[in-house]
Amino acid sequence: MDILYELSYLLFQDTENLSGKSRAYRTLRSIEGRLLEELTEKAGEDLVEKLIDIRTETACHDLLRCFLYGLQLGRAVSELGQSG
């Protein structure tokens, strides 16, 4: 099992679940959905599917990187607390 893939997948799943998210975030996701529908009509389903696949993959990488930065920050803060 690739733990980094699993972690990034779980983080991505969380962003896809709109329950508990702010109204602004839900509005943005709604607008994004409408734009993707419009793009599908104009550019075709195949192109939009490829775009979504790429965006999903990059989002997983971005979310994982943010999570790892958070861990680094938490560790640094913890070390500051221990030295003081």
Question: How are the SSEs ordered, and which strands pair?
Answer:
Elements: H1 3-16, H2 23-43, H3 45-83
What does this structure look like?
With 84 residues, the protein is mostly helical. 88% of the residues lie in helices and 0% in strands. It contains three helices and no strands. It has helices at residues 3-16, 23-43, 45-83. Helix 1 crosses helix 3 and helix 2 runs antiparallel to helix 3 (45-83). The longest helix is centred in the last third of the chain and has 39 residues, at 45-83. The radius of gyration is 18 Å and the shape is elongated. The termini are far apart.
In short:
This protein is mainly α. The protein is 88% helix and 0% strand.
Could you tell me the mean pLDDT?
A: 88
Calculate the terminal CA-CA distance, rounded to whole Å: 39 Å
Order of helices and strands: HHH
Shape: elongated
Low-confidence stretches: none
Number of helices: 3
Instruction: Specify the helix fraction band.
Output: over 70%
The biggest sheet, with number of strands, parallel, antiparallel or mixed sense and barrel status, is: none
Number of distinct beta strands: 0
**Rg:** 18 Å
**SS content category:** mainly alpha
Beta percentage is: under 5%
Oligomer: single chain
Short descriptors:
mainly alpha; 3 helices
